[in-house]
Amino acid sequence: MKLPCFLVPLFTGFALAGAAPSLSPIDSVDVFIGTSNSRWMMFPGATLPFGLVKLSPDNQGNVWNGGYEYTVGSISGFSHLHGFGLSGLSVMPVTGPMEYNPGLYRIFPGSPDGPFGNMWTSGYRSRFLKETEHASPGYYAVDLFDWRVKTEVSATDRCGALRFTFPETPEAHLVLDFGFPTEELTKVIDVTVRQTGPAEIEGCIHQHNQYAGEYRVYFVLQTDQPLRSMDAWQRGPFAGKSSNYGTDWQTPVDYRRGVRALSGHDQCGVALNFETHAGEIVQVRTGISLTGVEGARRNLAAEMGPMGWDFDEVVRNARSAWNRRLASVEVAGGSEAERRMFYTSLYRAFSAKSALQDVDGGYVDFTGRHRRIDRPGAAVYSGDSMWGCEWTLFPLWTLLAPSTASSWTNFLVDAAKTWGWIPQAPVMAGYAPVMTAQHQESLIVSSYQKGIRDFDVAAAYAAIRHDLTTPGVPMPNGGFAGDRNLDSYLAHGYVPEDAGPSSNTFEYAYDDWVAGQFAAALGRTDDAREFERRSESWRNQIDPATGYARRRRADGRWSEDSDPFKFGTTGGWSGPGFEEGTPWVYTFFVPQNPRGLVALLGEGRFNRRLQAGFEQGQVDLTNEENLQAPFLFDYSGQPWLTQKYVRSSLAKFWSPTPLVGWVGEEDEGQLSALYVQWAMGLFEMDGGCSIRPGYDLTSPLFDRVVLHLDPHYYGGKDFVIEARHNGPNSPYIQSARLNGRPLTAPRISHEAIVAGGTLELELGPAANPKWGSGQ
């Protein structure tokens, strides 16, 4: 007898170590990696690069890391949107009677931990057998054990495709629960649905959460066979509104059969009813839009129309899109697990954020106003905070996907033109109140410094200068733009604990340096000089008596709290302390001037502390503000320790399993993007924003890395990194040659990479203190 999925081995179906290398990059992607340690935006379902539709199974309640949890043995629905703060339209196949009894029968999602087989508690949730679950980029399939329905899903940018194989039953249903659980607590303000044809419904879900504010998800849902009927339910009365965000399962439910429309709110939904014979396939295709039902219909016609009801063609289209995206880099050597982790990480760097516009360029801004973009290739994006992306997504995009960097840069600059500020956390293309500082500007500046200049440069500089000289302000719809503590920072040369997090001194100083490099590149000498002066403000936050970052009052006195290992802030992101880090961590946060920090602390003390941090656990590679730590040794005369700790960290903090994947805040592909760079042997300490950007070097995981450079921006040549005598116990660079000439420094210019050529590294099992230590 087969066992339910929660009783079978967790890694059933995964590729075995030593298997033959994949024929194409997509075959090395394992979408289940990290799905027991991931958030709403990191899912095993189907999407395209930056697709609006992210159609994936859900199986949890309204919890942090909501959505899909690998170890939960059941599924409650397949929902279409899994962007940060974005959700909507869950579809779940069910068989059996749908009559409502005075309990909780099949019109609620049930509990992830059962018990199952009880109509009062399991709702429409179904268990599944783990060996029936299969997925790859653009495709997900599973057999739902309790309903005996095979479910397959795929997606285009704005549309979903679902294929259900039903058993013989007069009671086949598709349940659309509009109040299903999501990661962010979401209020369903109102819902409208109407049947518009024998095999079609359309509708709108009007909802609100603390990050996206109010927004509407419009949909058109078509089936390939007529509906027998449609039912609807509403917890509480159909008429009127409820202010309840949560789920009050004691509230009576009004269940209505044979309806043509629903007008509901909060916990409500519809059931689409069919009669099926054994093995009968019911296909569904959905068009999604944030502008209106007609937008959803246009999206459906444009993206799904050419493929008709050919589900397999939708899957092929998604596979082709992902292969094109992932083919920018080839790796050889290393282990099968390392290749799988590498390409999965590359996939994650493009799968979590969302482009919002319809096929005709229409979109709704964060205030609800309808707008349109008409520039070819332009997009309007939604995503979480860009805090920390200067080391993760941005360097990866500018190197491997400059068209992505260009598109995002244009979006940020256009937003500033419209609203006066560059968005730092652009949920629904707006200004969500998440995290701190303005590190999104590093994408704009690094793009410019690397020759990606197809944006309004003058407007970009004006926006950056404005944002770093103007105190932040509240924005419509509950958001916030700019820096909350800028006044205090400018007045004191640091952020006093009376005003906000001391860590913001370090964050703001980095932004100042980025702006100064942009100003210098544009010949704005006075601005460059002023921003350069401000970029040294980090020195004012380090206690000279201890050599550690420390909280400081507005009157200049140091706080009594001198513990360098005390974590976090008091009062959330805006309170005193060190945001999501310790004073120890922020002492090393000077990416714009690591040599200045080494000189301030003294090379010996700097290296002793940093090495002890790795050995004793003070280094935090689970969150963004300390991701530069291994590469600091490249600036302190001991690059062999960079090589040592990058290798050991790759093995310790990333693992190609569902239970681990990455350790810490993956967010929207940040730690995945970091893995890709480190595995190639590259990193950008300053985020690529210097006038002559370059990469810090370490030994790659792979024997051979080939970068296929974008022909539009970089001429289309290849850059090859070859590592001879490579292996798990051979991480140390003995010597290096660039295009046949000796390379003695542990860094290489961006210019040299995009010109094409070969970097040859000789590796060995013992450190070579002579290579790179004098630079």
What can you see in these coordinates?
The protein is α+β, with helices and mostly antiparallel strands. Helices cover 24% and strands 24% of the residues. The chain is built from 17 helices and 39 strands. The longest helix is centred in the middle third of the chain and has 19 residues, at 503-521.
In DSSP terms, counting alpha (H) and pi (I) runs of 4 or more, how many helices? Answer: 17
| Count of strand segments | 39
Oligomer: single chain
Distance N to C terminus: 65 Å
Largest sheet: 9 strands, antiparallel
Topology:
Elements: E1 56-58, E2 74-75, E3 77-79, E4 90-95, E5 126-127, E6 134-136, E7 139-144, E8 149-155, E9 159-166, E10 169-177, E11 187-197, E12 200-209, E13 213-223, E14 229-235, E15 253-256, E16 261-264, E17 268-276, E18 280-289, H1 293-303, H2 311-326, E19 329-332, H3 336-351, E20 354-355, E21 362-364, E22 370-372, E23 381-382, H4 393-400, H5 402-419, H6 441-449, H7 457-467, E24 473-475, E25 479-481, H8 486-492, H9 503-521, H10 525-534, E26 542-543, E27 548-549, E28 568-569, E29 577-578, H11 583-587, H12 594-601, H13 603-616, H14 639-653, E30 654-655, E31 661-662, H15 670-680, E32 682-683, E33 694-697, E34 704-708, H16 711-714, E35 718-724, E36 732-738, E37 741-742, E38 747-749, H17 750-754, E39 757-764
Parallel strand pairs: 35-39
Antiparallel strand pairs: 1-3, 2-5, 3-4, 4-10, 6-7, 7-8, 8-9, 9-18, 10-17, 11-12, 11-16, 12-13, 13-18, 14-15, 14-17, 19-34, 20-23, 21-22, 24-25, 26-27, 28-29, 30-31, 32-33, 33-38, 34-35, 36-37, 36-39
Helix pairs in contact: 3-15, 4-5, 6-9, 9-10, 12-13
